[in-house]
Amino acid sequence: MNEADKNKSQGFVNYGSTNTEGTNKSSRDDEYIENLTRILEFIPDPLFAISLTGTIIVWNKAMSDLTGQPADTMIGKGDYEHGLALYGIRRPMIIDLIINPELDIGLNYKSISRDGDAFLAEARMPLSNGKIADLWGKAGPLYDGDGKIIGAIESIRDISSIKKIERNLRESEHRYRTIIDSSPIEMHFYVLHDDESLIFAGSNPAGEALLKTSYKELVGRTIEDAFPALIKTDIPAHYKRIARDGGKWESDYIDYDGGAIRRAGKITAFQIDENMIVTQFVDITSMKKTEEALRISEEKFRTIFENMPLGFFRTNKDGKLLEANPTCAKIFGYDSVYEMSSIIGSVETELYVNPRNRHTLMSEAMKDKSLRHYTYKLRKKDGTPFPANIMIRYVGNPDGDGYFEGLIEDGTEHQRIEEMMIQSEKMITIAGLTAGMAHEINNPLGIIMQTAENAIRRLTAESEANLECAKQHGIDFSKMQDYLHERKIDHYLEGIRSAGLRASEIVKNMLQFSRRSESKMAPYDVNTLINNSLELAANDFDLNKRYDFRLINIVRSYEHGLRIRCTETEIEQVFLNIMKNAAQAMMLPENPTVSPSIRIVTTRIGNNAIITISDNGPGMDEKTTSRIFEPFFSTKDAGVGTGLGLSVSYFIIVTNHQGKIEVDSEPGIGTTFTISLPLLREGSNE
Amino acid sequence: MSNTNNLLIVDDEEMIRETISDYMTDMGFKTRTASSGEEALAILTDEDFTHATVDMRLGGMTGVDFIVKAHKIRPNMKFIIFTGSCEFTLPDELAMIGVTRDHILQKPVRLSVIAKAIKDL
Q: Which of B16, B23, B86 sits opposite A515 (nearest CB)?
């Protein structure tokens, strides 16, 4: 303590102050300071005090810790030794302002303020240990027990960590503010008042652009007042709910202009503080426009894909059906793509009649990526085989983990049309040939018939000329007749005559092939024509004992009002031919049909009258069916049929009436003829 | 002259002419034959006929041309027409001089049919 005292007095002396007070007084101060020092030693804040002469008289433990200078080296020193200890520069501090308010220390502090007789200051500066610290200090007068100022005391607090937090906070806030201000997202701020009014509180610059006016003009107004367009929407209600209850609300809005998107946006509102929300608008016009364009385009392609008349499929090597369009499902007889893909395990075994075909197709398709065309027999859902035209290509790498895709169509109709065209061409050729031939045969045939007729005539006794001539030559007419009869000359002549007659009937039929539509065409009711033919057939049995039409059960199912323009006799002849054939087939002596029946159905399909005539007779095999319309093709015994009935029918329907005739037959089941004839157009007066 | 029963047969086929002629002679007709329209017209200038059978297809002028010309020479003569074509329709010029559908016979024709047709004219 002696040392301290000495330093202390030295300090006083050094400071050059005038303290000439008595020892008593001085020792009382010392005692006071000693007590103060003892108390301050426990204060966690750094504290020190100086005397009126600037000598350090108190330097507590926390101060020693802060400066690294122990109290015994500091006590008693003056001349701003505390400044040196703290900052490494011998300079005055706010404590010195208490003693001498005239001192200029301002430059050393960030801020200095007064609080009564105390000074407060903040400084950021390097400490003597080199560290930069934020210090906060408060200095005030030091009173003795009598309330007399005996010096000054300063408390220092290291507020570096608080300052750092504060700085970070400020920087962070600045950063976020920058983000908000420079964000292209349009933001508005609202505050919900107690009276449930939502007041516009501001916006970021992007949000301000949306307002078309300065946001300041709208601040303080209710949302309904600031944005009248929102009154008729539920947006204010949503905003208020979020402001009150918290959470988040999102909604897309699309503003249409004549079917096209004018503007689309995404609105987000969320609570940022109690009764306070921020609303964000993101312009998604281009996104929505793209989306819409994509949707339209997708819909367009899907419509094409789903409605195209060709089946589309995608399969993998294992035969799994990966994708198909509705037409594909329909071709195979499935109700839907879903049904088809859930039923089919392997297209190879379930759809191909011959699964090896698919191996051929796959190995060829995998050679390159070109589209290949195949026609194979495939199977429908119900097992029916059909010719399918397949266009297929392979997509993927050559080692086979790609897929096959292609188009498929039911080739049945194609094949049928092709067959019909071949048939029709064949018939036309035959027709031309036959008609030409028939024409040329006419004259020689006429000569045969007529000479035979004359010869017969000239051998009869009925003619005076014959008898006269015989008499002239001395011939007994009756004896000559006996001779001719015995040698069967008359029989031969009759044979020539009747054969000629038969041939001329054939020629007449043959000539019909080249006949074109006649002027006798008129409108007739289809059902009436059929009924006429049925009557003819029923009466025909008398002439021809080979069948009895009355034993056949006739079932008629007519649609009424089917009128066609035709030559009555020709169409009746067609019906009669078919009915007669049916009757003859069902009454073959070696194989008569049990309960024979003919079913006749008339109906309208599109602009055509469809007449089907079906029997339950023995039917025909495929070979016979394919030749049935050929002239001179007959399965009947020679002399029973000319082999011309159905070929004439064909020409009557196809050439003369622009219709169609088809036959469908199955051995043991029966035969069906289907005739299609163009209907009279509505309103036609013919 | 009493020309109730005389017939001119115009056909380019000799045997046809002959058989028709023989048959109709037996039926009491007086007949003459011509192998072409030209020949028949020459005959008609000298001789009158009540009837004629005419084949439509002739060498030289057609049956139709012949009938038109023959009608001018012998307006009262009646015609039976033979045709080998079932497409044959009555030409207007023949209809105008009184030929009808009933006068057209489809070849080959039975002689009795010819005789009946002539009788029915």
A: B86
